[in-house]
Write a structure and sequence with these properties.
heterodimer; A: 414 residues; alpha+beta; five-stranded antiparallel β-sheet; 17 strands; B: 486 residues; OB fold (Dihydrolipoamide Acetyltransferase, E2P); Dihydrolipoamide Transferase; Chloramphenicol Acetyltransferase; 3 domains; eight-stranded mixed β-sheet; four-stranded antiparallel β-sheet; 18 strands
């Protein structure tokens, strides 16, 4: 936690680009003061891309407007204040731990889990999804204006079913073309039908925001041609969800679809609309792995990769198996800041009298949930009054609900 | 500063938790302590401002300060999260933090105190509004009284340019009093932020029930499984077809309220307390129309064309000089001692039909504006509304509302008064009707119906009728307006 605090403090102090850098060129730094900046990332690393995005948020000139476009390798990005155990099927992230039926060709292999710094829900990124970010001064910010910009970009490519909905997401209407004359209104299309049709619009882009005193960051996804649409629901459905009570923002799930447009066409169109909106003709600057060398970007990357950030930023939640009739040893755990803070254990057969319920097994109290790699090891010896079979079943349940996370992200290469 | 039982309990829990966690685990870096501040006149609670979009509460993610910390203006205080936005909140003052009102993961409520600051800088009038009262007010929200909801909230319509300027512009109305705020977690949260566990949500999904439809009986209005089952059994049977064919029965569709609808719902629910009466009269717009035609014909290309609305606004303003009761505010916070405040300025809310729904931006100080100036302001406001660029200041301070439904159509309407105003004027569509002139000959007349609603708790029919007739007289003979203008 100390790490984050100093990262925040240094961000506050530096309102202008620092003059001492290691590997970013002076030209790059000067660019941060340009009134309109456009960047495109060559990296597929989600940690790096998000860190570059954060760096641009903090270091770009307060009155400037910045566009960043990037594509990530397959990864799951959870919101700032979300709960990975609740939102994600963590067992699937490690390809060696589950059977092959979940990975259709091409096999997804390892999938990164990243907690981003902006709010909102959980999304799945892969090479068929392009992420766009716009950073602008806070006082000019509205939630719709850049979503509208992206819709105009899509319509320029012939996707006239796209529009911005009331949640500031971008959807494709599925109805039939009505005879009303099309308008330039980015919030409606001729394919909308007012009746309660069975065809709900498909969501193709979700947005999230991070707002600081002077700068507002709006970023969104755009599903262009993801090959993984039918496996994504497996990743984003956690088996533990029915057993958890949690605080924090939950994802609102919507039916999604591909726009079916190439990344290059989309990127070019967005850059053009951005240029038109802010009256600038400049070229997009490439950013990529060389930015890892930069201190502040690297620190940001390290923070995003750290298990502390990923798991300990989880708001309070509790998990209880009491509603699961197949288990006969009751267990409830309360987890605060990713650390087991309280709970109890008890056997059902003896009812809920106080004597049958014991407190948490000693080894669990105060443990970081993501540090637990084997529930058998933790609980094996600590429930002497309970038969071995029952303990094994309980551990199996726990293993399914709270699987041990995969190894450090940077051990997976793509 | 007095300690309510809630504060004490929270403090006890905190100290117990922190003493346990301090020993061996990573802990929240900052935790709350209780202080008794000795100088009541210096320490003030700093309120969580509205971050737009109709959001009434957000979750506190982390603190960047702790009690005792010295802060300068623009230092980060905390990070909060609401649906999709994570927002950094900075301090508008220099000072010393005295008390944190929330722990991480708590839901912080808009308009309620966030931290107490011992202010050690000069504070401007605008800054002073970001602060609460000295004591009693911060925890006064224990009993939820719908009538106590802050006036400020009326004007924060959601679908407008969300000014998430956390430096807090003069968005807060001067009239806002107290921080007691209705906290209804389920009302109109379009992201379904209602309280319900994931298990209950699963059940809701299975039974195709919208969480906003179910009355929660759990703690904090939480929706429980029993509530869902009860709701389902109360409903008449509906076919739950998963693949309806086009020729099959029409399906009902549940939908959450849009931000504008949410705001409208809240405002109009408050208006239910007002006993409305309706008074209509029809004005002959012949003179105004002729005048407009002449002026518009000779207008240069730079000047804008005039519609009848600026004339009506000015006529009402002139009439209100004679009938100030209709421009007053009624304060019913204490039902036993209602208070009328006669408002000096004529700030007219003008209802606009924007793409996102009904918006009511305000034209300020109509009594000081000429008709041309009013027309310019109206034009600017409707442009801003079309481009979703209206700021919270554009909605604040209305003392009287005019709803020109005539742009769409209509004759007699029964408009709904927005609390704490006491009257509203609905303008229909002018149409040509046959009438008799003074020689009893049949002539064409352009008639416009004006529909007045007033709060019968303080306005009687005769007073409203007199004002209405005066406005009619102004419109039928514009010369009368001219002789009353200053």
């Amino acid at each position: 936690m100390i790490v984050w605090n100093s990262a925040c403090r240094s961000a506050r102090l530096s309102t202008r680009p620092l003059t001492v850098r290691r590997c970013l060129s002076q030209r790059t730094l000067d660019r941060l003061t340009d009134p309109v900046q456009s960047y495109i990332s060559t990296s597929r690393d989600p940690y790096l891309n998000l860190s570059i995005e954060h760096f641009l948020l903090q270091q770009s000139a307060p009155e400037s407007v910045v566009l960043l476009l990037y594509v990530n390798r397959p990864s799951i990005i959870i919101g700032r204040n979300q709960n990975p155990w609740l939102e994600v099927n963590l067992a699937l992230l490690d390809p060696s731990s589950h059977d092959q039926s979940y990975s259709e060709p091409p096999g997804l292999g390892a999938v990164d889990l990243v907690r981003r710094r902006s709010g909102g829900g959980t999304v799945f990124h892969d090479e068929g999804n392009v992420n766009w970010t716009v950073i602008c001064p806070s006082k000019d910010f509205t939630r719709d204006q850049h979503a509208e910009m992206v819709v105009r970009a899509l319509r320029d490519c012939g996707i006239d079913r796209a529009r911005v909905n009331v949640r500031h997401d971008i959807v494709l209407d599925q109805g039939q073309h009505s005879l009303t004359i099309g308008s330039d209104d980015t919030h409606s299309t001729p394919y909308q039908t007012p009746e309660a049709d069975a065809r709900k619009p498909l969501k193709v882009s979700g947005s999230a925001y991070k707002l600081t005193r002077q700068r507002a960051l709006h970023h969104g996804t755009c599903l262009l041609s993801s090959p993984n649409l039918n496996i994504i629901p497996h990743y984003l459905h956690s088996p533990a969800k029915p057993y958890m009570t949690a605080r924090g923002v939950e994802s609102v799930s919507s039916p999604v679809g591909n726009i079916l447009l190439s990344n290059e066409r989309f990127i070019a169109s967005v850059q053009k609309q951005f240029g038109k909106l802010y009256r600038s003709i400049g070229d997009a600057q490439e950013v990529g792995d060389e930015w890892q060398e930069h201190d502040s970007v690297r620190k940001g990357c390290d923070e995003l990769k750290s298990p502390e950030w990923t798991y300990l930023q989880t708001p309070q939640f509790s998990i209880s198996n009491q509603s699961d009739t197949l288990t006969d040893v009751d267990l409830e755990l309360s987890v605060r800041n990713g650390v087991i803070s309280s709970g109890f254990c008890g056997t059902r057969k003896s009812g809920y009298s106080g004597a049958a319920r014991t407190g948490l097994p000693a080894g669990l109290d105060g443990r970081r949930l993501h540090d637990i790699s084997s529930w058998d090891d933790e609980l094996g010896g600590s429930l002497p009054s309970v038969s071995h079979d029952r303990v094994t079943r309980l551990c199996k349940w726990l293993h399914m609900m709270l699987p041990p996370p995969i190894g450090r992200p940077n051990t997976h290469f793509r | 500063m007095s300690f309510s039982p809630n504060t004490l309990l929270r403090a006890l829990r905190t100290s117990k938790a922190s003493s346990r966690t301090r020993v061996s685990f990573p802990q929240p870096l900052f935790y709350r302590q209780l202080h008794a501040s000795s100088r009541l006149d210096v320490v003030k609670p700093f309120l969580l401002a509205d971050i737009g979009e109709g959001i009434t509460e957000c979750q506190l993610i982390q603190w960047f300060v702790q009690p005792g910390a010295r802060v300068e203006q623009f230092d980060k205080l905390c990070e909060v999260q609401s649906d999709k936005a994570s927002v950094e909140i900075t301090s508008p003052f220099d000072g010393v933090i005295k008390k944190l009102h929330y722990e991480p993961d708590d839901m912080a409520i808009t308009g309620k105190p966030l931290v107490d600051i011992d202010i050690q800088s000069e504070i401007s009038g605008a800054d002073a509004e970001k602060l609460g009262g000295v004591d009693g007010n911060e925890d006064a929200g224990a009993e939820k009284d719908q009538a106590e909801e802050s006036v400020r909230h009326d004007e924060k319509l959601a679908e407008v340019a969300s000014e998430v300027d956390v430096a807090y512009s003069e968005a807060m109305t001067k009239g806002s009093q107290g921080q007691a705020r209705q906290h209804r977690p389920r009302q109109g949260r379009e992201d379904k932020g209602s309280l319900a566990t994931p298990a209950v949500r699963h059940l809701l999904k299975e039974t195709h029930v919208d969480v906003a439809d179910v009355q929660g009986t759990g703690r904090d209005g939480r929706v429980l499984k029993e509530d869902v089952h009860r709701h389902v059994s109360e409903q008449t049977q509906q076919p739950v077809a998963h693949q309806p064919s086009r020729a099959a029965t029409r399906q009902d569709k549940n939908a959450p309220l849009t931000p504008v609808q949410t705001q409208m719902f809240k405002t109009m629910t408050r208006s239910l307390d007002i006993p409305h009466f309706l008074y209509t009269c029809a004005a002959d717009m012949g003179a105004i129309t002729a005048l407009r035609k002449r002026l518009n014909a000779s207008a240069t290309s730079g000047e804008q064309k005039l519609t009848h609305l600026p004339f009506i606004l000015k006529a009402v303003s002139l009439a209100l000089q004679h009938h100030p009761l209709l421009n007053s505010s009624l304060d019913t916070k204490d039902p036993k001692k209602p208070e009328i405040t006669y408002r000096g300025a004529h700030n007219f809310g003008v209802a606009i039909d924007a793409p996102s729904g009904l918006l009511v931006p305000v034209v300020h100080s109509v009594q000081d504006l000429s008709i041309v100036e009013i027309a310019t302001q109206l034009r600017q406001l409707s442009d801003k509304a079309r481009n979703s660029k209206l700021a919270p200041t554009d909605f604040s301070g209305a003392t009287f509302t005019i709803s020109n439904i005539g742009s769409v159509g209509g004759g007699v309407v029964a408009p709904v008064i927005t609390a704490p105003q006491v009257a509203i004027l609905g303008v229909g569509r002018s149409k040509l009707v046959p009438a008799f002139d003074e020689n009893e000959e049949l002539v064409k007349k352009e008639e416009l119906v004006l529909s007045w609603s007033a709060d019968h708790r303080i306005v009687d029919g005769a007073e409203c009728a007199r004002c209405a007739e005066r406005v009619r007289a102004f419109l039928e003979e514009p010369g009368r307006m001219m002789v009353e203008m200053r």
